[in-house]
Amino acid sequence: MKKTLITLITFLPFFIASSINALTLNLKNVKLTTLINTVSEVTGKNFIVDPRVKGKINVVSTQEIDDDEFYHLFLSILQVHGYIVIEGDGFSKILPQSNTKNNSAQLSSLANDSIVTTVIPIKNVAASQMIAILRPIISRYGHLAAYTPSNTIIVIDTRANLVRLRKIINQLDTEIDDDYELMPLINASADEVAKIIKSLLPRDAKQTANPLTIAIDKNNNQLIVGGAPAKRLKVRFLVKELDKDAGKGGDTIVIYLKYAKAKDILPVLQSIGKQLVEEGKKSIKQTVNIHADEATNAIIITAPSIVASNIKNVIAKLDIRRAQVLIEAIIAEVSIDNTESLGIQWAVKNGNGIGLIDFTGSLAAAVSGKSTFGKGANVAIGKYNSATESGFGAILTALSQQGDVNILSTPSIVTIDNEEATILVGEEVPFITNKQIVSGNSNPFQNFERKDIGIKLKVKPQINNGDTIRLDIEQEISKVTNQGSASDLITSKRTINTSVMVADNKILVLGGLIDETVDITNSSIPLLSSIPILGELFKYSSEKKVKKNLLIFIHPTILTDQLVADKVSMEKYNYIYQQQVINGGARLPERPLDIPPVTTSPATLPTPKKNTVKSATPIDRDDEVRSIEEFYPEGEYD
Hints:
five-stranded antiparallel sheet; Ribosomal Protein S8, Chain: A, domain 1; 15 helices; five-stranded mixed sheet; elongated; alpha+beta
């Protein structure tokens, strides 16, 4: 027996010293002082041992342990034998506890049932949870400790009780097949319940055996809970308490909108709320009320949490900032004259083209005039794609220089995507709708209705993928053709209703509405025109047919954000400022204070010359552009 003991004591230091990272510890009847020396060599700690520290120990271990586990095991061995370690500066003291004498007396009666220390690994359950279950079973002499990093349990107890503990651990430490479950909610929101439960979980997330996990299934308003059965049982209880019926009224929440109008999205939300109630008739017992407060632009929802949560998600997707569209237009009439004259008109062509000289003019001035005739104008309808931003301004300048072109309006307006914009330039004209003559009263009783007469343009843009814009255009030009009484007014109307697709920052031309009028003009010289036969030489009559073709140039520009809007605004501002510099007179400030400077310089305008108009941008030679060139030929303007 002595040889065996000496061999174990001699072998122990060599065994531990030869293991660098891990060791398997099995000790039988080893002196406590020998273990203290070995721990000092392994950990590098210095110990001051009280002379009263004595005894022999037994340790059984089936798995390798590292240095930290070995020192933790050493502290547990000392504690079960009635000793404590007091940490000091550079050394540690090993002293008996205050009740060492009582414990020694009790331990002396356990000669036939020795105390054993063992390390038991736990595979499927958290070691800290296993400690809570085993603590009532441990003997009054035993000790339990959990080492969380390796999920192991250190047990110090009698050999007989240790066998019983192992059986219990083996029964509890079994693999769980169904380690998750679904927990549907009826009244509460799964998202809100998950936040509450997660806030109650312990912050120590180092447990490696079946940690509790909570996932949210928003579509079905349920929780997916994974983990140990004991943990899931607690979560199930919390879910049941939190998912209680809130009563008939439900919860009331107020959501303030940032971009959308409350009254515009209210019908959509009410329809969705009604649909949710229909789908969950059995589970949803509360009423759902959704109202809009226009004063604060807010949505007020009174509904169960599950319905309110779904409606909030819909609001978050609807309440977004939409892009804007700048719509510039030119509405012009192109006249095509066909004149038939009868008689003699004293007239010649002047140096600028057409220059009729009336009878009241000087004959010498007529003789001195030149007789060069300008080209006729042929107009074709089509689409003009501008390669630069100055293309639209070039069209406006060229049209304004044409003698046979009447620019009716050049409106410009900004509207939100999918919102209709309306421009009206005209006047309200009264029309008699009813006339009643009362007996005894010479003045009849009349009812009037005022109607808008003039130029009306309605445009509704819709931004699609690829920076293309769908435009729903409604153009109307109306005028009073006679100047009679309100009951005899006759109006003419020309309208265009169409839907087109155009790319961002491109120009679309619409037209083809032709209005034909006939003007008859008679002129003569008094007295001379009344002479028989010879008087015909001093008379002049003409019949002029005027055809007016309505052209509409549309130029849309997408304003995706505030930076793009500022850039476009600054370009328009610079255009007006440069025109004022050219024409002289009063000027705007060089740059408005509330608009940042544009990094890209705007297109420079050409210096105008007398009786000339030059295009600021070269035009490609294709079929679509050729029609525009024929409208204002190069020879006439260059």
